[in-house]
Design brief:
The chain has about 220 residues and is mainly α. Helix content is about 60%, strand content about 0%.
Amino acid sequence: MKRIESISHVINILKKEVKRFKEPIVTQYARKKDPFKVLISCILSLRTRDEVTKGASKRLFSKADTPKKILKLKTKEIERLIYPVGFYKTKAERLKTICQDLLNNYAGEVPNSEEELLKLKGVGRKTMNIVLTYAFNNPKGLAIDVHCHRIPNRLGWVKTKTPEQTEYELRRILPKKYYRAFNDIFVTFGQNICVPISPFCSKCPIRKYCPKIGVSKHR
């Protein structure tokens, strides 16, 4: 089986497999087609478990769901609402900075270009790609987080050290038709089966295609 055909085959298997698990929280907000909520929930999700992100996003948006409303909140109030997300104090400050930038430079709207999104403080390539992919349905968006980085390395598709390197390498070999779904599929799979430590290889639907690169112990 040729490499691209093999990659497509594995992705199609996983696409069916992950349907039995919960969607990532950012995807749930994406279904509401609100770029601002996608952006903010993604910022909150960095280095934070999905259930914690979900609770924090819900509390924050119940109080303030636009840049203007968030800026009316005191930083301590934002901290209280988003706790216990990782680095909640830093994120509270960052949210206010982003909201101010949106009002000053984009009339309160989330920009829909790679260049402009990356100008926002705290927005890296993962967040930028998630916003482009899910909020604006941009076919060029390829969001890569730690799961999307770890699993292709385990599968031997890439040999990279950072999610950013993985993004660029995957753009060379991954059929574009999978760009939008890639993050959803691999985040869900990485949270439930191909976990960081001791992955559940015994119940993995693609185990026969996986050389388990870098896996020293599995279940």
